[in-house]
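Teaching soon. Invent one.


***
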Amino acid sequence: MTTNQFYDFTASDIKGKSISMESFKGKVVVVVNTASKCGLTPQFEGLEKIYQKYKDQGLVILGFPCNQFGGQEPGTANQIEEFCQLNYGVSFPMFAKIDVNGKEAHPIFKYLKLELGGFLFDDIKWNFTKFVIDRNGKPVERFRPTAEPTELESTIQKLL
């Protein structure tokens, strides 16, 4: 892999617009793979609360819908966006549906898995795996899918 910094990547947002991760330079970033029909989906509420609490201090959460785990994100971009806004009031940036594992894994997730390997193996194990990236673009901590968003708070506070 030639790219070696978070800010070198781009991704399409939920509307299909290409967004450079460089636009988040200087912010603490949480990258999370999401799904609308998962037992962990209520974490959207906690993620939104943390986003609202810290966004003015420099936090941004980036949601990446993924359908690789039990087909729990079958919807279109419009359906995903509507679901997140109506059910959880999600206002943090959401991106186009991606793969996080395998040959077609999005480069951002390939990079994050390389930088912060998982327990036993590096692949993403399920929806709502969370990566925290510091203000300089360095991935600093990986949280398991079942980690409640409040468990990220002390790490976020230290980095802000």
Notes: The chain has four helices and six strands.
